[in-house]
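Notes continue from the previous slide.

Worked example: a multi-chain complex. Inputs as given:
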Amino acid sequence: MIRLEHIHRYFQVGEQTVHALNDINVTIEKGEYVSVMGPSGSGKSTLLNVIALLDQPSSGRYLLNDQPVTQLDDDELAKIRRENIGFVFQFFHLIPRLSAAENIEMPMILAGVAVKERKQRVQEALASVSLQDRADHRPDQLSGGQLQRVAIARAMIMRPEILLADEPTGNLDSKSGKEIIELLEGLNRQGVTLMIITHDQNLGDRARRKIRIVDGQIG
Amino acid sequence: MRYADLLSLSYRTVISHKLRSSLTALGLIIGIAAVVILTSIGRGIHTFVLAEFTQFGTNLISVHPGKTTTFGVSGASISTVRPLVIADVVSLSKVENIIAASPMVQGNARIEAGEKQRRTNVLGVGAAVPEIWKIKVVNGRFLPKEESNPRAFAVLGNKLATELFGTASPLGRRIRIGSDRFRVVGVMEKKGQMIGFDMDDTIYIPAAKALELFDRESLMEIHLLYKSNTAVERVEKAIKRSLIARHGREDFTLVTQNQMLKKLDSILNILTLAVAALGSISLLVGSVGILTIMTIAVSERISEIGLLRAVGAERRTIFQLFLCEALALSAAGGLCGVLLGITIVQILDAALPALPVELAWTYIVAAFMVSLLIGIAAGVAPAMKAARLEPLEALRAE
């Protein structure tokens, strides 16, 4: 469960102070399907980064599963991200010199999971995104849709309860985009909390709960 | 993160840029190979020179006139140094534990034998020289044991005998040294050069005759051979006691072969150290290569660092990853350098037998350790830079 209370986030840009998040109060229950929409510069990415623990709010309280996470140090945050949050990015962010299987394996390597278990879980993950026959391909040998499927498999490999997707279809053609969304929605049906940031109205409308953000405030 | 995974990830990264990694390692390879080769030559010369000096044996002591100390009145104003004379040799040869003693006067003179003439090195010595210097007579005999009033006999070095008499036997022939007449009684075996001094182009005559020939009053040195199972300090003490009793004071200096070897050894060690230092300059250049490549690698992979941080890598892990990469590069470079160096040394040894080479293992191990240290030193700064990146900013870099 994600609970944000009176979250503010200021940025110093030159002389000016930008108020990117202005008193955000949101609670997202486990298993919800939420879309965050809003124009460019509205603060939706900042909101995602705060929820993802990649950015710290200037003030306010953030409880993740009833645990306050605003006062944690860097290494503790890394551990929480590793175990609780999966990321899917617009630009995939795969490591170019590693194969699809190795990219999926990476969070488990960082977590120190045993080799035997890793190999087995990677096989299952590849099967769940229908890429068994692409395991040894490097990112430059895969299409955009396949890359994003690898990224989703990587995001889910540590079995996090939250999946954050930042414009997951922004770099894909409409057919691959549709496949990716169906994959993500399938994961949501299995109980994963899914939060998608998007410009795309049609995509945003598919979510059961829609958050609209304008000028750093929830509209 | 497990260490095995750390190693395999670093290995994967180094391997993925084959050309770039090998060029980077090449700097180090050349540096390490240079250290291996240069120190092998240094060590080879070291061994060679020491062997040259020990071919006369190690239980030798020489006595030189004058006391080398830096206090007291200058010897130039009041000379109280009593010269070393042949009687000193006779008395020293009776000292406990001394096997043999020989005077030594050296000079250069013209030798005439029939029609032939040659300038050569003249050694005025005693009968004990073959025993002290471990050198044999191949033809005839050496100078007889006659301390005072010796007969005018001469023994020729091997090369000198050939030059003067060709294949004919020189035994019994008369020769002229300077203006004095001598009879040849023996020829020495071939001994070869000793650091530029040709032992074969030499003539041996009795010391008393050499003093007359060169118009000297005193000996240049006295050479003593002592029993090899005796402590050198005890022998030195006995020699001093005997000579002080004769001269009234310590106006001489003893040099043992061991002291000389020790001095030589330290000089030659400095030589090896100096060439190692020369080689290290190229090591330094190699390390700059690694620093450059690691700095580039960090800036190329900022977004990858951001991703790793986002999926749960601690700062420590990022630091380890990049440091390990620099280490992998330097260890590979160091290992190849050592192998290349050893190969070249072996080729040199086979191709140029005259050049003394000997693998200096201490330096080889040290060079490899230094290459690892270089990896760490060159890797730390870029790795720290990578670890300090904020995940969010790093992710945005594209």
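Summary box: Chain A has a mean pLDDT of 90. The beta strands of chain A are 2-13, 16-28, 33-37, 59-64, 67-68, 85-88, 162-166, 193-198, 209-214, 217-218.
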